[in-house]
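Handoff note, outgoing to incoming analyst
You'll be picking up this chain. Sequence as last confirmed:
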Amino acid sequence: MYADPRLSMAETEIIDPPSPALLSEHGLMNGVAIWQQWAGENDIPYWTDVDLMELPGELRGGTMVADYLPDEDDFRVRFWGVRLVDAFQIELTGKTLSTVFDRGVMSSFRSTAQQVISSGKPQFLLHAITSEKGLRRHFPVVRLPISDDGKTVTKIMTIENVDA
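Most recent structure output, in case you need it:
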């Protein structure tokens, strides 16, 4: 496990349920609409129906997909968008979240992701992150469940509009 001050988390606020106006205000409504298209008549989309290239570039760059590892109660980052690399100056693709500093950005993910897994419902959050230089910034985030079998949440896609 490594400590990285660039991933310092100040607070996370869950907004449930988010209004379409709030999602639109933060530039996330399009990502939710695409996720709903992937799901079709299902509650959540099959992973085989997800095509990240269908997301607009500004959203794809702020997207993370994490595979849930229930036997380990952990997540492995399958995809970590280029805008996340730029924003946090760290590449997490292929890493398990247990290897990321526990008081960092991913501790918020670990503490709230179980709600997405158990409910199978999207989750909207507002992160307030303070940089090592003391700069505080708010990042709106939507977490979307994805399934390998159409029933069980096996992945979570987080879309962050880094430019919002």
